[in-house]
Predict the 3D structure of the following.
Amino acid sequence: WAKAEGRGRWAVYDPERSAADIARSALAAGLPAALDRGEFVVHYQPIVSLLDGSMIAVEALVRWAHPELGLVGPDRFIGLAEETGLIVRLGEWVLRQACRDARAWHREFPEAKLVVSVNLAARQADDPAIVDTVASALSRTGLPAELLQLELTESAVMGTAGEPLRSLYRLADLGVRLAIDDFGTGYSNLVYLRRLPIHCLKLAGPFVEGIRGVGDGSPPDHRDERIVDALVRLAHALELWVTAEAVETGEQAERLRALRCDTGQGRWFGPPTPAGQITARLRGGIGSGPDGGEVAG
Ligand code: C2E
Ligand code: MG
Ligand code: MG
Ligand code: MG
C-alpha cells in the first residue's frame, strides 16, 4: 500500500517514516482480507427514551475482531477504509448485518418497534448506488423501511455543489429515517434542514459533556446548557427527534430530560454490546443504569 507518490517509489525505506505510519499501513492492508474472512462484528448500543427509559432504537457500531490485536474500534480503521474505498463494501456488509439482526428482533418483539440506526460514511452517501444497496438490504432481510435509520454527518449530507445530496431524497422516499450524526460539530450549513426530510438530530458528545447536574459536584456549564436548549427547540420546531450522545451519568440524563431532549445514548444507558445482549434486554432481562465496559462476543 504505497504512500509513495511525490516522494519517489523508495518511500517505503524512508527512515523518517514513523512506526505509527507503518502500523497504519499494515492495518489498512489487512482490511480487505479481514472482510473476506468475516473478522468484522457489529455491536449495538441502546438509544433510550428519556421519558420512560424504554429502548426505542440501537446504533450499529462496527468492530474488527483482529486475530492478534483483539477487538479494534472503528476510530482506528473507518478512516482508512474511507481512504482506500473499502468503506463501500464494508458499509454494505454492516448494513446487511444490522438489517438481519433488526429483522430478527422485530419478528420476536414486534411491539417494541425497535429501530436500527446505521452510520453512512460520506463516500457511501455520495455513491448513487447507495439507494439500491439500501433497498436490497431491506427487501432481502424483510426489515420494514421505517425500522431503519441512517446516520450521516453534516458534511456528508452537503454535496460539493452546495446542495444536499440527491440520493438522500430517494432514500427518504424508501421510507427510511435519516439522522444527522454529531450535530453541531460540522460546518453547519443549515440549508439541508429546510430541504431534506430529516427525522432526527444527534447532539454531539462535546455539548452533552458540558451538561452536568448537581450530583457530580462540578458546576454546570451554562453555555453548553443553553446551546443544547436552543438546539432542542430548533429540532422540535422542525418536528425532529433529538438524541443526546455520550450520556455518561444519571445527572446528565436528568438534565437532558428537563431540557426536553427525547432520547439518550451513552454508557449510562449501556455500552455497545453484541446482538445477543440486546435480545436479552428486549426479553426484559437487563435494566438500564451504569454498567461495565464493552466485551467481545
Ligand atoms: P458515532 O456514530 O458518533 O458513534 C458514537 C460513538 O460514541 C461510538 O464510538 C460509541 O461507542 C461512543 N460512545 C458510546 N457511549 C459513550 C459515552 O458514554 N461517552 C463517550 N464519550 N462515547 C461513547 P465507536 O463505536 O468507537 O465509533 C466511533 C465512530 O466510528 C462512530 O461515531 C462512527 O462515526 C464510526 N462508525 C462506527 N461504526 C461505523 C460503520 O459501520 N460505518 C461507518 N461509516 N462509520 C462507523
Ligand atoms: Mg470506540
Ligand atoms: Mg453514529
Ligand atoms: Mg455521533
About this structure: The two ends are 31 Å apart (CA to CA). The longest strand covers residues 55-66.
